[in-house]
Amino acid sequence: MRIVMSVSALREVRALWGSESVGLVPTMGYLHEGHLSLVERAAVENDRTVVSVYVNPTQFAPNEDLERYPRNLERDYALLAPFNVDAVFVPDNGEMYPQGFQTTVSVAEVTRYLEGERRPSHFAGVTTVVAKLFNIVQPARAYFGQKDVQQTVVIARMVRDLNFPLELVVCPTVREADGLAMSSRNKYLSPAERSAAPVLFRALSLAERQRKKGEMDAESLCQQVRGLIESEPLASIDYISVADGETLQEIEGALPAARPALISLAVYFGETRLIDNVLI
Ligand code: AMP
User: 4, 10, 35, 139: which one is catalytic?
Assistant: First the structure.
């Protein structure tokens, strides 16, 4: 496993691989089993695997947690060691945004809702850095988690619109035994908040069960999810959404029978904002 810190060095390594297929797993590090499930799949499906570890400052708003975002590269390298990873790309900010940098890649429509509504500059930061990573690594496949569902929809749009010659692979959300979606940010939770946080998965599971029982009303599903989360005193709801799984537009009235609906939410536990979702 090579540790590569510059764009030019990554390009040299990539050139040696020629026409071999490369799988790319973009991450912000502080890896957990969710990230590793993407790495494992990339290593199986491609000749070469590149994992990027980069806490991208342009996707954080000034009031967000860029400074305190957990970082530990030695820990990340140790977690990646058992997998068949060819290169870990760990650029610094000067490498990704050198003096004079002034280009942004932005996706219009699907960034307006959900996370994009609450974090207006977030997705332009994501698409810009991911476009750069695609150009630097030239992967045949890129791996993203369902946990960040809007990110997958936004990047899929960018890939189609800008003709990136690669396949986007969306992998299922990996959860702790009690249902809490794995996230680097779970580290921020106090013990009491950590015990309270699985209410999110219980609420999403409730919606899934109600849908299977025939509940088709978006408002009613939303209220049931809200009711369960509000029963947890440490939880403070940012939003709960029932939206079209493809356009991400809010559903009013009945769920469409033939298309997946996306129930997604963002909830604070203290200062920590957790997101989760389920497609029903
Ligand atoms: P991050 O380091 O949080 O930017 O995440 C890097 C990639 O890992 C993104 O594609 C995430 O969606 C994915 N990911 C994060 N948490 C999970 C999880 N619990 N299960 C599956 N994928 C995840």
Answer: 35
